[in-house]
Amino acid sequence: MGLYLYCFVPAAVRPPALLGGLEDEPVQARALGDLGCWVSSCAARPEASLERVRRHNAVVEAALAGGTTPLPLRFGQWLETDGALEEVLLERRAAYLQALQRLDGTVEFGLRVLDPALAQAEPSPPHGAASGTAYMRELAARVQAEQAVGARGLEIAARLRAVLGPHLKQERIEALPSRHGLVSLAHLIERRAEREYRAAVDDVRRQRPELRFLVTGPWPPYSFGE
Predict the structure, then answer these.
(1) Among 3, 90, 145, 188, which is least packed, fewest CB within 10 Å?
(2) Domain end position, chosen among 99, 127, 145
(3) Together in a domain, 16 and 88
(4) Measured between alpha carbons, how far is 88 from 90 in angstroms, rounded to an integer?
(5) Can you tell me the distance from the alpha carbon of 115 to that of 198, in angstroms, rounded to the nearest whole number?
């Protein structure tokens, strides 16, 4: 019987007694020294499904709800034996403990910033132009528009960074692949600073009323693991 892995935690952190994981299997704790891992028995590597992904995330969120910030693992981490898990813990123990120390006392928030006006202002695709010169002009206009959108997204990220100050531990910035998306942000913040985080977003929202700010979280720090 193999083991399915959910997250790494300090060895002293135990899962709730009735917590069920994939296929309703009990969630158990394994530990090596001061490093722990939450697992369930699983005969083979599970196929991905919406229900299984939800179960996986529910276990990781249970660790977060208990007051510990876990080091989450992505869905699908499976090992054949307890011995294989012990090898992983021995090999990566220092890195996992360092990550747990870095994440301690934090949560993740997601923020998507949208500009509804972009849906109307988007330039048409560069095809069907009357000449090669016209095609290149259309292509250049499209590139310039995309660069302007990216710059505006970075500006919003910088404003939030300035308002959040030391409460913001890390961030990830990505382009938002939609017709009216400016930027997608993942923020790692102090768990105790949730109110300050939402106030910071509201502050920037008031400064930029033409934009939409969509906040999700707090979540386990999937974006800031290893």
Answers:
(1) 90
(2) 99
(3) yes
(4) 5
(5) 20
**Which helix or strand (DSSP H or E) is residue 145 part of?**
helix 132-164
Q: What are phi and psi of 53, to 5 degrees?
A: -65, -40
Cα–Cα distance measured from residue 55 to residue 40, given in angstroms and rounded to the nearest whole number: 11
Given the structure tokens 């790494």, which residue do they identify? 8
Taking only the tens of pLDDT, the chain with its 226 residues reads: 899 999 999 999 999 999 999 999 999 999 999 999 999 999 899 999 999 999 999 999 999 999 999 999 999 999 999 999 999 999 999 999 999 999 999 999 999 988 887 766 555 555 555 566 665 566 555 555 555 555 777 888 888 888 888 888 999 988 765 667 788 899 999 999 999 999 989 988 998 898 999 999 999 999 998 6
Query: What are the CB-based long-range contacts (under 8 Å, 24+) for 171-175?
Result: 172/223, 172/224, 175/150
* Structural contact between residues 46 and 78, judged by C-beta atoms closer than 8 angstroms: yes
38 and 78 belong to one structural domain = yes
Radius of gyration of the chain (CA): 22
Give the separation between CA 101 and CA 39, rounded to whole angstroms. 21
Residue keyed to tokens 């095609």: 135
Tokens 């005969």, residue located: 43
